[in-house]
Write a structure and sequence with these properties.
By secondary structure, this protein is of the alpha/beta class. The protein has helices at 27-33, 45-49, 52-60, 77-89, 101-116, 188-207, 213-235, 240-260, 264-276, 280-310, 319-337, 353-360, 376-386; strands at 16-19, 39-42, 64-68, 94-99, 136-140, 152-157, 162-167, 175-178. Helix 5 links the parallel strand 4 and strand 5. Helix 6 (188-207) packs across helix 10 (280-310) and helix 12 crosses helix 13.
């Protein structure tokens, strides 16, 4: 891996990680570790109905202050504001999110309000907080978002039909409990698409403008682990070894992109998600290969590194040949897992691509893309290839 001789960077990784089968039983001890005593659970109905929340409640014992289980797929301002008010009424001094990306993002927004009051709309922007917020323990039930270790969250303005990014170092969760048993019941398609979210994080971390040696190695290792374990998780969901490796990979990818950032894939995925309710991992999965092909002339050497991590690099390959092999490997992986490969197959209308392209131009992620994006027409070109 080659870097500019003038390379300088700041690397952050604040979250305490607990890993192991049935490690969810340690959540009570982790609440104590944070010097807290009244934990408020944040989750969704699907996770509750699967019986996963009961395990957390049992482990919390008399530390349990209350629960909010109405997080939707795309959480909104009104959801966060309502849930935070309930947590305050319950006298909560810490939050425990049990679920996937939307649940964790809801809890991140709640953590601001439980400590500081007001409405989430009052805190929009980047690095707006001035002091630590409500302690937050994350127990992921998917292995993809990496939100358990990131400093950002995405919330939907349901009135404007737009997804908005919040980012602040104080949003990074205090603790993440990675328990493979909590992901064992995840359906195959959701396993696949959340796993592709993690792969996208790792690939974009490697090609992003803030890439640096530590995040590169985190992302490189995550890609290797995902390629080796994600198909197994999809095909044999009760394999807790593979599930555990995928969880670790998703967390590593989250740490990588928290430092290096993401790029055009995420900017475009946010927009089709907001406009047409395409799940985030699904959108990333479809858009990753065409974005790689679009960026290739700018960062073939970076994608050659991705090819090595994927195991598709061969001796004698040029960087461009290796980069093409990496993009094709993504398509092969999604085909093997039965994930849709075109936007038209997930309900995105062709006539809606122009609006999505114009929205993507103003998404914060796009500024870190290796190829400079100045016009909506550039984004539209990739959307059309993905459609």
């Amino acid at each position: 891996m080659a870097y500019d001789k003038d390379l300088s960077f700041i690397y952050k990784n604040y979250t305490r990680l607990i890993f192991g089968v049935n490690s969810v039983k340690d959540v009570g001890a982790e609440v104590d570790e944070l010097k807290c005593s009244r934990a408020f659970i944040v989750t969704d109905q699907g996770v509750s109905e699967a019986g996963l929340v009961e395990r957390v409640e049992k482990a919390l014992g008399n530390r349990l202050a209350g629960k909010f289980d109405q997080c939707p797929q795309d959480s909104g301002y009104h959801i966060v504001n309502q849930a935070a008010e309930l947590a305050v009424q319950a006298g909560a001094d810490c939050l425990v999110s049990v679920g996937g990306g939307s649940v964790i993002d809801t809890a991140k927004g709640m953590a601001i309000l439980v400590k500081n009051g007001g409405k989430l709309e009052d805190y929009s922007g980047f690095q707006m907080l001035t002091e630590p917020i409500t302690p937050h323990i994350v127990i992921p039930t998917t292995a993809g978002t990496g939100s358990e270790v990131t400093y950002a969250f995405v919330i939907k303005d349901w009135e404007k039909n737009q997804k908005l990014l919040y980012a602040d170092d104080y949003l990074i969760p205090n603790t993440a409990i990675l328990d493979p048993a909590m992901t064992a019941g995840l359906p195959p398609m959701l396993t696949a698409t959340t796993g592709m979210d993690a792969l996208t994080h790792a690939v974009e971390a490697i090609h992003a403008l803030q890439a640096e040696p530590i995040s590169d190695y985190m992302a490189f290792g995550a890609i290797q682990m995902i390629m080796q374990n994600l198909p197994r998780c999809v095909e044999q969901g009760d394999d807790l070894v593979a599930r555990g490796q995928q969880q670790i990979a998703a967390t590593m990818a989250g740490i990588a992109f928290s430092n290096a950032q993401v790029g055009m894939v995420h900017a475009m995925a946010h927009c089709v998600g907001a406009l047409y309710k395409v799940p985030h991992g699904m959108a990333n999965s479809i858009l990753l290969p065409p974005v790689m092909m679009y960026n290739m002339d700018e960062c073939a050497d970076r994608y050659a590194l991705v090819a090595r991590a994927m195991g598709v690099w061969e001796k004698g390959m040029s960087d461009l040949e290796a980069a093409e092999a990496a993009a094709n490997a993504v398509w092969d992986l999604t085909k093997r897992m039965g994930v849709p490969q075109r936007l038209r197959d997930v309900g995105v209308p062709e006539e809606g691509l122009k609006e999505a392209a114009e929205m993507a131009l103003y998404d914060g992620s796009i500024v870190y893309n290796p190829k400079l994006i100045m016009e909506a027409e550039q984004v539209l070109e990739v959307y059309r290839k993905a459609w």
